[in-house]
Structures are given as C-alpha cells and as structure tokens.
Amino acid sequence: MIDTLLFLLLFLLAFAGMEGVAWLTHKYVMHGWLWCLHASHHSPRQGPFEKNDLFAFYFALPSILLIWLGVNVNEWCLPIGLGMTAYGFCYFAFHDGIVHRRLPFRYRGKNPYMRRIIQAHYVHHATTTKEGAVSFGFLYARPVAELDAERRALENRVNAGGAA
Ligand SMILES: [Zn+2]
Ligand SMILES: [Zn+2]
Prior knowledge:
It is globular, with a radius of gyration of 18 Å. The protein is mostly helical. It has helices spanning 2-33, 35-38, 55-72, 77-99, 112-124, 144-163. It has one domain. The structure holds zinc ion (ZN) (2 copies). Residues 26, 30-31, 38, 41-42, 124, 133 line the site of one zinc ion. One zinc ion binds at residues 26, 30-31, 38, 41-42, 124, 133.
C-alpha cells in the first residue's frame, strides 16, 4: 500500500515538476539561445512540421531513459518516467492539439480552467519576438488579464529600448 502511494506521489510530482521544467525551458532556452529553433513556432507554419518540433525529442529522451531504468535498474525511476511521459501527452494534446489545432478536431468546451490556459497561451503568441513574450507556462497560468497587462508593459519597454 505504501509502495502504491509512493508510486503515485512520485508520478504526480514528476508530472507537476515538468510544468516547471517546461516553463524554465520555454523562457530561458527557447526564448534564449535556441530561439533559432523556437522562432518557427512564433511565425505561421510552413507545411506540417516546424523546427520547434525538435524540442519533442529533448523532452521524450529523458522520459524513455527513466522508463527503461525503471524497468531494468531501479523501480523508482518508473513513476518519474511515466509522470514525465503523461505530462508530454497532456502538453501535446493541449498545446499542439487544442491551441494550435494540429489534430483533426476542434475543442469547443467552456471549462474555465481550459479557457484560462488557452487564452494565456494566446497571450504568449501575441508577440513574434524573442524578448517580447510573457506567459511561458502551459498547463498552469495566472489570470489572463494579469498576463496581458504584463505583456503590454514589456512591449512598451522593448519598444522604448529599441528606439533609444
Ligand atoms: Zn514561445
Ligand atoms: Zn504555442
């Protein structure tokens, strides 16, 4: 019983932790030194894929490795690997499927949580620049009005800096 609870706890911690990892990666890597790959995601897609899709490998490899380790070496790697994989699925379904409509169906739900994270990601995409973006999370978001105010303030600062 304790083992099952611990398994679940590790799974949930890995799942929640991945939102933090995704936030940090998005803010400091994608909008940082790997902007050359992520820029494709802030402009209209040409064809079915974009350079930004390469980040899927970056996230998939450690999950696959942890699942392999969990099965072959240490069982406690398994819930962590599964939690990371589950996050990957939710991220893909939400970000690529629902927000960017890469799946052949439309989400028309009115769930307030879903609306908030969808709108928050639209606020992120309100800019096409590396420096002007806010709202780097995916499955968690602050109130949209707050994010939008932050975006406007940042835009003014970037514009003022550019003009100086
Ligand atoms: Zn971005
Ligand atoms: Zn996006």
